[in-house]
Amino acid sequence: MRVRLRTNAHPMRNFNPERKTTAGKLNTASLPPASQTSLRRQCSHGAILACHMYIELIKTVHTATVTFQRAITELLEDMGLEDENTIAVTLVPRKGGEARNHTPSHAANNDYIAKYQLATSRMRALDNDPNNPLGFKQQANIHCAYCNGAYKVGGKELQVHFSWLFFPFHRWYLYFYERILGSLINDPTFAFPYWNWDHPKGICLPAMFDHERTFLYDEKRNQSPRIGTIIDLGHFGDEVQTTQLQMITNNLTLMYHQMVTNAPCPLPFFGVPYPLGTDPSPGMGTIENIPHTPVHIWTGDSPRQPHGDNMGIFYSADLDPIFYCHHANVDRMWNEWKAIGGKRRDLSHEDWLNSGFFFL
Ligand SMILES: [Cu+2]
C-alpha cells in the first residue's frame, strides 16, 4: 500500500482544535542561548525558567491521573505546580473513523495493558508464517528496509531518517501498525500508549514494558535504566552523574529548546529538505536529533550488544515493542509543536507533500 502525504493527512492524531495553548505566555527573549551541551551540565536560572515554560506548555494538553514520584513531586513543588496532577490529550475522531484515545503509558490502566499485551502476542504469533506481512518481524522489517539501504532511488539509498521525511514516514508507519494491532483484537479504537518522556510523570521507562516474560518485554534492552531510573533525554552514550531533580530539569530544558527556541519555523523542526534523487541524510530536525535519538540509545542494550540492539540501531529498533510507544510520543511532538503557534506549521514544499511510501 502506498500512501501520499497529500491525501490529507494526518489521520493518526488530530488534536482538539479548540484546546487552548499558552503560546502567548512564552517569552523566549528571557532565555539563555540554546547550548545543549552546556545545558546538560548546569542548571541556570534560565534553565529553570525554560522548564517551567515547557510545563506550562504541556499541562494544557493532557488528562490522566497519575501517582507522583518523589523527585517529581519535589520538582513540581519547586515550580509551584504541586497541585497539578491531571494531564491529558484530547483527540477527535478522524473523518469517518472511530476515535482513538492515546494514553500516556504511565497512566494506562490494567485493562488497557492487558489488551495491548494480547494484541502484541497475536502479532508475534503471526511470525509463524515468516512471510505474513502483518507479523511482528515483518513489520519491523519495513522500518529496517527504509533505513538500511533496501530501497534505492536513482542509484542512491532511500533513507527516512536525517531529513524532513522523518516525521511523515513514521506517522504512517505507526498508523498502519496501530490498525493491525486493533484488528487482531477486534477493536478499531485501539491506540498506542505514548511514552511521555517530556513530562516529569512519564520520564522513566514505562512499567508496562518492564515485566519479563511478557509480550511487551525485550531481552535486548539496557538493564541499568529500568523502572525508577530517570531517562537522560540528552544521552549519547556517556553516563551523567547528577541528581534526579537535576536530570528532570535538564530534560525539560532540552525539550523547551528543541520545541520552542531552536524550532521557530518549519525547516529546523522537520529537518533539511530531501528531494527525490538527492543525497540521503541531509540533516535532522530538532526533535529527531534530541530527544528522539538519545531515547533510542538510552534504551538499547549497548552494554551487551555490539551495536546497541535492539533500540539503539536502525535494523533492530522495531524488534523492541517500546519503539512504537517512543515514536507515538515523537509523533505527538509534531502536533504539540504546531499548537505552540507563531510560524510553526506544516511544510508546504511540493517535494515534501508529494513524498510517498509503500507499507505492504
Ligand atoms: Cu526512532
Automatic annotation (TrEMBL):
Domain Tyrosinase copper-binding: 161-178, 320-331
GO molecular function, one term: catechol oxidase activity
Pfam families per the UniProt record, alphabetical: PPO1_KFDV, Tyrosinase
InterPro entries found in the cross-reference section: Di-copper_centre_dom_sf (IPR008922), Polyphenol_oxidase_C (IPR022740), Tyrosinase/Hemocyanin (IPR050316), Tyrosinase_Cu-bd (IPR002227)
Source species of the chain: Capsicum baccatum
Role noted for this protein: Catalyzes the oxidation of mono- and o-diphenols to o-diquinones.
Biased composition annotated in UniProt, kind: Polar residues: 24-33
Superkingdom, taxonomy of origin: Eukaryota
Name of protein: catechol oxidase
Reactions catalysed according to its record: 2 catechol + O2 = 2 1,2-benzoquinone + 2 H2O
